[in-house]
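Handout, section 4.2: multi-component inputs.
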Amino acid sequence: MDTSERLDSLLAPEHRNLLIGGAWREAEDARRFDVLDPADGSVLTTVADGSAAEGIEALDAAVAVQAEWAATAPRERGEILRRAWQLLQDRADDVAWLMSLEMGKPVAEARGEVAYGSEFFRWYAEEAVRIHGRWMQAPAGGSRLLTIRKPVGPCFFVTPWNFPLAMGTRKIGPAVAAGCTMVLKPAAQTPLTMLLLATILAEAGLPDGVLNIVPTTGASELSQALQGDDRLRKVSFTGSTGVGRVLVRQSADQLQRVSMELGGNAPFLVFADADLEAAVDGAMIAKMRNMGEACTSANRFLVHVDVAEEFGRRLAERMGALTVGRGQDDGVDVGPLIDDKAVESVGQLVTDAVHDGATVLVGGTTPDGPGYFYPPTVLVDVPAGSAINTEEIFGPVAPITTFTTDAEAIAAANDTEYGLASYVFTRDLDRTLRVAEALEFGMVGVNTGLVSNPAAPFGGMKASGFGREGGFEGIEEYLETTYVALPAP
Ligand code: NAD
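Output:
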């Protein structure tokens, strides 16, 4: 099967459209946009380009079934999620291939995302039946207090291109479990995985209208229309801090609940007592997972001066040995970046760092030829103030800066507007605890380069946003509380 035959076999042309109230529809005036193959820039297919008015129709559909959906048995909602989890296991190879095709990441990594992303469905299948309020005697004894948990209501989800499946399942899983309906706008670069997921959820028994999908190139008009509507009760966004600020502002008029998973600038601290082999292994994951296009990507390597040279050398060896190529080809470790703008911005950060005094150990040159490739790159002697240390790189570049004391390391790590992921490599338990407490980040990986886990609360502070996805905390974002005051019996 060639690429277009396999694509057709996975996602029928009628599913490359808007999904509103269970019906797959073309956009008004048959407007469509192109989905590109980042490995060569060619057009893979087109997808319906929804309008703001169609977004409101999607909200109409969500609102129409909200009450009925909220009244379904928790077990029933959980079983839909559990069936969808199973279908994702059964079709993991196909889902991974499609994700790799539109987003660029190697199929093996996309397979990892299917495992990770689908797990939110299994986790929240198990949480759906544990939603509960409480009953208590008032402290003064005279009355009784009852709390009731209810779904927050129709939600609007906006997801980014870098994890086309998992950034959706992290929102859909808890929303389904809680009994919310939703309108989802996938990133215009990668709508196909989400459309395929919608077919899988329908097959798993999700009722029409619970999940509506509006792919669009008019994200701003869509979000303004939806957030201007007082029937929408919640917005959950994953993406850049700039867009997050816009959506928070737009939430003010209707006072919508908001969850914001925004950018990061993760420090990766390697202390002198660290197991250097483990630190390099961790660095390879924290830096190279998703080609560095992750909000949790290690962005600044802060390494104790005594071990910096060896760490840099070993990391450069490993980075230099990676195979760059089309994500669907065998043996490829590093796929293309998402688009030409991404390659340009990563290249510019490297050029500026070198201009500021950094030295390139490996990589550092944008290759000629088609596709949006950038090579794994290690930079040493990077001045702390260089833009590559203050901005989110979102590419396969590891800038290394040295420190001498723990206090200096902690101050440097916290010296960012962001507060999402951070990483610490040390064998000293006291230091681990001291540093973990002092870091102003929502997540701290200790001697590991991977913090994401569906059972854990993923999220940040400061300019990385607020709210948590995953864990027991994740479902709270989709529940309201009504407190009922009662007299003593
Ligand atoms: P982006 O903010 O440009 O786009 C994210 C999504 O928002 C896309 O679907 C886009 O179409 C949409 N969007 C853009 N303008 C909008 C508007 N006015 N109204 C509504 N939607 C709008 O970000 P990106 O470049 O696609 O993704 C990369 C960014 O996402 C990085 O900054 C990264 O750190 C962040 N990210 C964060 C997390 C997290 O969980 N914290 C996860 C993945 C990515």
